[in-house]
Amino acid sequence: MSDLPKPNYKDPIHWLAFGLGSGLSPKAPGTIGTIAALPIYWFFMQDLSLTAYLLVLLVSSLLGIYFCHKTAADLKVHDHGGIVFDEWVGMWITMLLAPAGLWWLLVGFGLFRFFDIIKPWPINWLDEKVHGGLGIMLDDIVAGLMALGCMQLAAWALL
Fold it and tell me: Which residue ranges make up each domain of the chain?
């Protein structure tokens, strides 16, 4: 990532798009960015009502489209590797209605990273064809939905 432009450290939108700095990791910024989303889920979101959680997901998704679009445009790099707010939202989608416990958080993390890295269809198609902030967010939203489906199936089968 050293050859890519750096975010404006004074711009709060860049800081949010870069996951409060977690996307600045020189190695595996997507994974580090996803790890940074875990404490936010653990401490703030896991105890929300379903309605409040869905509202957070909706607002975060819409704001993420703006944050990611503006930051990518400012840096003149589509889907800069350091932009990880999309990973945050994808991870939070994965954890929707997840059973409580650290085990399930780790399973959700693994499933989300699997779908985000492997990019099976339609994730790979979205990643290639949809651009701007919507494109940056959409492939991670769909990866989160696929991981959510697997999480719910696993919870149903095991609990």
Answer: 12-158
